[in-house]
Amino acid sequence: MKDQFVPYEIAMALTMKGFDEPCIKVYDTLGYLQDEKIMDELSLEKVAAPLWQQAINWLDKREVYCTADPRVEDGLLKWYPVLKTLNRYEFVVREFEPRGTKINALTDLIEYSLTLI
């Protein structure tokens, strides 16, 4: 189930950009997923561990829209990271090179998106 959560590095970057929504898991200071109740009981430092969809929804609220577009090329499934931003009255669409997995596409896309905020 840990692949449902953004990686530690993205969780840290989201926190630095102001992400403060409730999450069902947290990362400890070593980057391991933990149950928040356990961390609270031990009074240890923690970083919210959002689900991928939580991170995407948070970016949506800031008019940065991330998707991973699946396509079949030469018989292989490839995932294209697609970023849309609102520029006054129209969307600016940027498509990146394909990635081998959806998680890789979303990781790269969210990391780049956070540089825009």
Instruction: Give the SSE order as H and E letters.
Output: HEEHEHEEEH
Extract low-pLDDT stretches: none
Broad structural category:
alpha+beta
Strand order of the largest sheet: 2-1-3
Describe the secondary structure blueprint for this structure.
Elements: H1 8-16, E1 25-27, E2 33-35, H2 36-42, E3 47-48, H3 52-60, E4 64-73, E5 76-87, E6 90-95, H4 102-114
Antiparallel strand pairs: 1-2, 1-3, 4-5, 5-6
Helix pairs in contact: 3-4
Give an overview in words.
This protein is of the alpha+beta class and 117 residues long. It has two domains: 1-61, no CATH class; 62-117, no CATH class. Helix content is 32%, strand content 31%. It is built from four helices and six strands, in the order αββαβαβββα. The protein has helices at 8-16, 36-42, 52-60, 102-114, and strands spanning 25-27, 33-35, 47-48, 64-73, 76-87, 90-95. The protein has a three-stranded antiparallel beta sheet. A three-stranded antiparallel beta sheet has the order 4-5-6. 21% of the residues are buried.
Which descriptors would you attach to this protein?
2 domains; 3-stranded antiparallel β-sheet; alpha+beta; 4 helices; 117 residues
What would a concise description of this structure say?
The protein has 117 residues and is of the alpha+beta class.
